[in-house]
Amino acid sequence: MIADLSKAIILYLAPLLALTSFLLNLFVFLAPTVLFNDSVSLASVTPALLDLATNASVKAHGEIDGPSLYVGLLGSCARKTNKEVLFCTTPSFAAVYNTSVLPTSIPNFLTAPVSATPVFAILALLLFAVFLPLFTLSALREKLPGKMNALFSRPMLGSFVAWAGVLSWLILAAVYLVMRMWLGRSVEDINAQIVNLGKGAPQLHAEISNGFTMIWVAQAFAAVPVVCSLMKLHMSNAPVGKV
Predict the structure, then answer these.
(1) Which end of the chain has fewer CB atoms within 10 angstroms, the N or the C?
(2) How far apart are alpha carbons 144 and 151 in whole angstroms?
(3) What's the pLDDT tens digit per position in 112-152?
(4) What domains can be seen in the chain, in order of their start residue?
(5) Is residue 52 over pLDDT 50?
(6) For the segment 22-37, what is each residue's pLDDT rounded down to a tens digit?
(7) Distance between CA atoms of 151 and 138, rounded to whole angstroms?
(8) Confidence of residue 102 (pLDDT cuts 50, 70, 90)
């Protein structure tokens, strides 16, 4: 039973998790300027209330009209009121966040990362795009015709697949950890400034958004096929009789 479960994970679950991880990473990379303009972002500034009891700005549960700003790796989407259509900046590696919709009383703490950050992210995505089909075919090589089976049984190809997966995973983890620290500090500074303004503060609240949750889920999913590829590489290179 354990052997069948192990086989099912390697043949079916791991490739499915790899595909899901790739799609999640791609969605977050393109959001909000290309996809999911107001539903997926790395950080956002939205209308909110100032809770005088706790002396902090909190996200509003009701409808409060005001400016909104959603930011990602490639740019931002913004609007001055809830009724307006979102205006998104042109997607670019040298992203610029359109903070002009925010009140002048809030300093421009929210700045885009250096252009190298999205470049590393797209490099990691390309590596994972190579890893995904090669890993899937390698996992299913027993079901492939003779020549294809022999090709995907080569240790050199297994080594390439494993390296592509590991490098992709590490680069994406590094990119989004840096972005989390970068935007996390900006969010704290914005909320602190709003609180310091007191009763006259704009009804806004900055927060880290759901894009990071999607990334952590994607990384957890990607770890399964990456570990499987490393185990296959280890098994293929192990001396006969040893594991």
Answers:
(1) N
(2) 10
(3) 788 889 999 999 999 999 999 999 888 776 666 666 666 66
(4) 2-237 (1.20.140.150)
(5) no
(6) 999 999 999 999 999 8
(7) 9
(8) confident
At 213, list the tokens: 């949750």
Tokens 């914005």 label which residue?
Answer: 190
DSSP assignment of the chain: -HHHHHHHIIIIIHHHHHHHHHHHHHHHHHTTTTS-TTT--SEEEEEEEEETTTTEEEE-SS-----EEEE-SS-EEEESSTTSPPEEPPP-SS----GGGS-TTS-----PPPTHHHHHHHHHHHHHHHHHHHHHHHHTGGGS-HHHHHHTT-HHHHHHHHHHHHHHHHHHHHHHHHHHHHHHHHHHHHHHHHHHTGGGS-SEEEEE-HHHHHHHHHHHHHHHHHHHHHHHHHHHHSPTT--
How far apart are alpha carbons 30 and 214 in whole angstroms?
13
Specify the higher pLDDT residue, 115 or 209.
209
Taking the model in full, what pTM does it have? 0.86
* Span 177-207, pLDDT tens digits: 999 999 999 898 888 888 888 777 788 888 9
Going from the C-alpha of 98 to that of each of 33, 46, 67, 69, 180, the distances in angstroms are 11, 14, 12, 8, 19
Cα angle, residue 239 at apex, residues 234 and 243 outer, rounded to 5°: 50
Which CA distances in Å does 46 have to 37, 72, 101? 14, 15, 11
For residue 197, which amino acid is it? L
